[in-house]
Amino acid sequence: MRFAAIHNLLRKHRLQVVGTVFNSQTEVDRAYEQTAEIMTRTIAHEGGHAIVGLALGAGDVLEWIAIYNVSGETVGGGCRWGHKACPIEEQWMSHTAGMAAEKLQYGTYDEQLARWDKVDLKNAKFNPADLPKYLEKCGAVIQSHSSAWHTLQDLLYERTIRDLTYRIDAIRQGDTDVGHVTGQEARGIFAAEQVKAASK
Ligand SMILES: [Zn+2]
After folding, report:
1. Which of 84, 109, 120, 140 has the most CB atoms around it within 10 Å of its CB?
2. 5-23 pLDDT per residue, tens
3. What is d(CA 99, CA 97) in angstroms, rounded to the nearest whole number?
């Protein structure tokens, strides 16, 4: 569903996609599909980073989440966090959260989307052998906030569609994020879930 809508808009507006040199229409088609696939997965992935960060108490330094894409040959999203000291295990969880979220939603995570996370993990002296354990740990955190995670994904998706519909010129010029949600909005979604859970 999300994939199809994003894919249609990318094609309709002929937005720049992954890759730069195409030798056939098949390759162009494939590039549109890959871009839509990455953007669709990024919604779950970045939603996972945000939820785990919020659950670990770093919500106050979450500045924004975005699905970006499109300004050049790069696609993929991000969460921007301000600085906050936390135990190394929590940093590892934060870097693992996107992969864990994809795994929950799709059964596997995409190596391309995970490549910066893996660089961050390496820089933080993470033992790769612990990855399965951390994927499970993060998966459990995300599942325990599953309604907030889904609400956040809905909003990221809605903004992505809005931007791909109404902000094409800015996207083409590469001077806007796609699917931008503020830290405050994410905190609001997370807090609303806590209130609902508490009143049950
Ligand atoms: Zn990530």
Report:
1. 109
2. 999 999 999 887 777 788 8
3. 6
Statement: the pTM of the whole predicted model exceeds 0.85: yes
- What confidence tier does 137 reach under pLDDT thresholds 50, 70, 90? very high
Q: How far does residue 94's CA lie from ligand 1's centre (Å)?
A: 9
pLDDT at 158: 98
Beta strands in the chain (DSSP E): 62-66, 78-81, 181-182
The full set of domain ranges for the chain reads 2-198
**23: CA distance to ligand 1 center in Å?**
31
**Burial per residue of 111-123, b for 16 or more beta-carbon CB atoms within 10 angstroms, e otherwise:** eebbeebbeebee
> For residues 54 and 140, is the Cβ–Cβ distance under 8 A?
no
Which among 114, 74, 75 has a CA at the least distance from the CA of 95?
114
Ligand 1 center–CA 135 separation, angstroms: 12
CATH assignment of 2-198, given 1.20.58, 1.10.12, 1.20.120, 2.60.40?
A: 1.20.58
When the pLDDT of each residue in the chain is averaged and rounded to a whole number, the result is 92
Task: Classify 53 as helix, strand or coil.
Answer: helix
Parallel, antiparallel or unpaired: strands 181-182 and 62-66: antiparallel
Tokens of 174: 């590469």
